[in-house]
TrEMBL record:
It holds the Pfam family Thioredoxin. SUPFAM superfamilies: Thioredoxin-like. Coiled coil: none annotated. This is Thioredoxin domain-containing protein. The gene is 103484268. Residues 58-197 form the Thioredoxin domain. The lineage of its organism: Eukaryota, Viridiplantae, Streptophyta, Embryophyta, Tracheophyta. It comes from the Eukaryota.
């Protein structure tokens, strides 16, 4: 029994390594056959493969089967990349970058929003598309997105008194012009219109 499993394992490893076994696109292939023996029906490819691999006849182990899988047309493949995002949201990934961005907003008097969030925060996930849309509507305002769970941000977060998420700080003319804690969509829209509308 153990002797028969070694060649079967090698065969399975070869089939999987070749990359010919594509899960979603195997439905309409013609089943493989050797020596004129049909090994299964096309309705259940996994049972055909398991019958072949784990059959007790030693003759089925002499030759590798011919698999005939259709090639997938290019237009059926899903794109794994997306188009560039026109929103002006900058991800802050370090304490130095956060400090630089804060000083830039204060010293250069640039309009900015500092959006403090966390991956585990449900209201933050609800607010994310709203922030993205608002950043498109106000292209002159730079939005800085800060994940509070990043290492090294503790001291700066304490200095800014960030105690809950989502928290948004609005800067205009080098000063903090407003602050909103929580997922208050109407409040955020009103605050942005009041501060940044020309």
């Amino acid at each position: 029994m153990g002797r028969n499993l070694v060649p079967q394992w090698r065969l399975l490893r070869r089939v999987l390594h070749d990359g010919r076994l594509r899960t979603p696109f195997y439905r309409n292939y013609s089943t493989f056959s050797r020596s004129g023996t049909n090994l299964g029906s096309s309705s259940s490819p996994s049972s055909s493969l398991s019958k072949f691999l784990f059959s007790s006849s030693s003759s089925s182990l002499r030759h590798a089967p011919d698999f005939h899988f259709p090639s997938v047309p290019f237009h059926h493949c899903r794109s794994l990349c997306s188009a560039s995002d026109p929103s002006n949201i900058i991800l802050i990934k370090s304490e130095n970058l956060l400090k630089e961005s804060l000083s830039k907003a204060r010293e250069e008097a640039l309009p900015a929003i500092f959006y403090f969030t966390a991956a585990w925060c449900g209201p933050c996930r609800l607010l994310a598309p709203v922030i993205k849309e608002l950043s498109k509507n106000y292209p002159e305002v730079t939005t800085y997105k800060i994940d509070i769970d990043q290492e090294g941000l503790e001291r700066t977060l304490n200095d800014l008194n960030i105690t809950s998420v989502p928290t948004l700080y609005f800067f205009q003319d080098g000063k903090e012009a407003g602050q909103i804690v929580g997922a208050d969509v109407a409040g955020i829209k009103n605050m942005m219109e009041k501060i940044y509308k020309k």
